[in-house]
Amino acid sequence: MELVWGSLLTRRRKRAPRVPAGLRIYAIGDVHGRADLLAGLFAVVDADVTARPTSQVVEVLVGDYIDRGPQSRDVLDLLIRRRERHRTICLKGNHETYLAEFLRNPTILTQWRSYGALETLVSYGLTPSIKPDEHEQRELAAALDRVLPESHRRFLAALKPSFTCGDYFFVHAGVRPGVPLAEQQEQDLLWIRDDFLLHEDSFDKIIIHGHTAVTEPDIRPNRINIDTGAYASGRLTCLALEGEHLSFI
Q1: What is the pLDDT of residues 33-64, one digit of tens each?
Q2: Which CATH architecture has domain 2-93+162-248?
Q3: Of 10, 81, 110, 222, whose CB has the highest number of CB atoms within 10 Å?
Q4: In contact, 228 and 64? CB cutoff 8 Å
Q5: Edge-to-edge strands of the sheet including 245-248?
Q6: Which residues of the chain have pLDDT under 50?
Q7: For position 15, what pLDDT does the model report?
Q8: d(Cα 224, Cα 247) in Å, to the nearest integer?
Q9: Distance CA 69, CA 32 (A)
């Protein structure tokens, strides 16, 4: 599906949003432990670049690489390898904050468990019980600390909260209405929902985000949601932006 912004704009925006000439951006939604879908999507992106060459290509992933799905460790391995040969920008999702915090504060597993933590721990070869008590939480944190590759630690530590290009602002969850994009708080960038989703006025840029799963990509005049619940739906969405055009591959 290919669209031109003209049919989607409100009267408040004087011209169609665009990315710089000669650049194509592929924005990928929440992966959540589905390395199989991500590998397949990267193959589709590579085929699209071969079929439609352009001067520069940037891949942007909007966070939530781990939890819920069965292959969190494999997803991080795949992203680390991808960045070695492609210009790939990986943004931070709220789920990534739990893994790092768990190593410092094992009791956070009580909360993280409801977000799919056990699937992530299993992907690293650990065997958590369904409801770990505090003793098991400490043991699991110590075990994860032993097996977590250094490359994964560096990857998680380097995740960016947002990325700006042309008339687009890429982020995991969204932004706080009324706050300039340069002054947004990371808590909002990773967690915000209704205050952002229900806001109908323009932001400084078009916001590309995930975090809130939808059955189809949600295209609004001020934002585009590309989280299609990959871990449950089997659909990992990729939005391609080039000039004033947007399409899904």
Answers
A1: 999 999 999 999 999 999 999 999 999 999 99
A2: 4-Layer Sandwich (3.60)
A3: 222
A4: no
A5: 2-4, 245-248, 238-242, 23-28, 56-61, 88-90
A6: 10-11
A7: 82
A8: 12
A9: 5
Structure tokens, 112: 């993280």
Task: Supply the Cα-derived Rg of the chain in whole angstroms.
Answer: 18
pLDDT of residue 11: 46
* DSSP conformational letter for 135: H
Find the DSSP H helices in the chain. 35-51, 72-85, 94-104, 109-112, 117-123, 134-147, 150-157, 186-191, 194-197, 230-233
Q: Report residue 162: phi and psi, to 5°.
A: -165, 165
Side-by-side strand order, sheet with 162-165? 162-165, 168-171, 206-209, 223-225, 218-219
Domain boundaries, the chain: 2-93+162-248
> What is the secondary structure of 138-198 as a DSSP string?
HHHHHHHHHHS-HHHHHHHHT-BSEEEETTEEEESS---TTS-GGG--HHHHHH--HHHHT
Axis crossing angle, helix 94-104 with helix 150-157, rounded to the nearest 10: 120
For residue 60, what is the enclosing H or E element?
strand 56-61
Q: φ and ψ at 218, to 5 degrees? A: -100, 110
